[in-house]
Amino acid sequence: MQFLRDWFSGGHSPIVETDEVYPLYFLDNLAAGRDSVLSETLRYNHVLDANKLHSGLTKLIQHGGNWRKLGGRLRLRPDGSVEIHVPREFTEDRPAVQFTSQSFDIPIEDHKLGSQLPKLADTPSLHPGPRSFDSFNPIPDCPDKLRDYVYSDRPILRLHVTSFTNSTLVTLIWPHVVAGGLGVKEIISAWSKALQSDDDIPALLGTDKDVLDGIGTDQDNPVPYHLGPSEIKGWGFVKFALRLVWEVLMHPQVESRAICLPRQFLSQLRESCLSELRAVHKGDSAPFLSEGDVLEAWGARFIAQARGGERPALIITSLDVQSRLGAPWGTEGVYVQNTAGCVYTTIEPEILLRRPLGELAHVIRQSIHKAATDEQIRAQLRIFRTLGHTGTIPIFGSPDSHLMSFSNWTKFNIFNVADFSSAILPTASNVSDSTPIGKPTYMHCQALGENRLLRNCYNITGKDWDGNYWFTVFLYPEDWVKLERYIDQTCQHLKKLNT
């Protein structure tokens, strides 16, 4: 049906001449993410007023300070890039937000699928993934690709609220071409403030001109990208691509599961890794490892063991550049645009499979340390600028590698900024737990639609209010028994170290 609608429309974006036009920028239009549609679902153990949530998000867009850009529609330019067209006035026919809701007159624990939503446990635990709940949280007319926006008058933001008698699920859907993890964090944070008052809503910056203009150009940075000589191209790229296609053919089905790692588990795992490093670096200054380094090492080792063989790993880690790049970031507001680069880490089989986990985490830390400098970020942005909206992001490493990907939203602190306490219905019953009032108890993010290449992937949503890590993993169906065994082995290892 979508094909027929596109065909009858002549494949052109519908244009309203009176709309205001806002640009999107080169990182927004990169082919790697521009066709994706993202969905963030937050569970609250409170009954929230769905209409108040909707009016709060609409209020934010209409507030001023350029937030109205997010009430626009995506349109294709003649060169194939995407821009935003915003109605001069939002109406019932052309609203700022597409909004739907549904309600179940039962507690969430009494719902067959709602009762299976991930819950905190004392030990590491596996739970059904985001796709498992799509059937009971159906979102009518849900977009899942860029063309669903550019060939319709669909607003950028889609809000769907599912209510129970003691709990609420809030789902926000948006096209990746507009924002990534940090951008949606800023939207949710400003939305929370709009529910409380007008006074604290920040200005939206960078709506007319890219803050990265001039950065990563040939004139800006003569330093070469440090991984340039290891780019996979020519016959090496053909070999790499054929191996990936073979894996898709042999393992066409990929499943997602949610994982919760309690605070104590990760704290002990990090201390174990640091102890292993101190034993190697005797006399040297104490090495540093972040919890993210340890998580990435732990996850990468599992995938390598599950896939078997003696191949190296190529880990691609998303890296937001805002805190690392010396661009003229404004301090009087926030940015909602894509600002992510990549870190490429190649790990040889000996370290990947057999050396202490702390050494593997140290390799990951060193790779981030080299890639996250101002000079190297500018060098990578220079490469990205040459790609336009059709070019494939280059891959650096060994053509024989297991490809893995990690994204980590922990620093965005969405668990804390998503404060919807102002929308709690005062007369309703709530689930009794120790979650701070108005804060989510669980969340997950997923890319909508089908992507058969999405595998060997960890999306770390972040830490909740008590320091527990939540993330979603995309693996093969036969991997889950192996992962449960791997988790149990890690727990036994940590138990021995602490007895």
TrEMBL record:
Give the species. Answer: Xylaria flabelliformis
Q: Which InterPro entries match?
A: CAT-like_dom_sf
Q: What is this protein called?
A: Uncharacterized protein
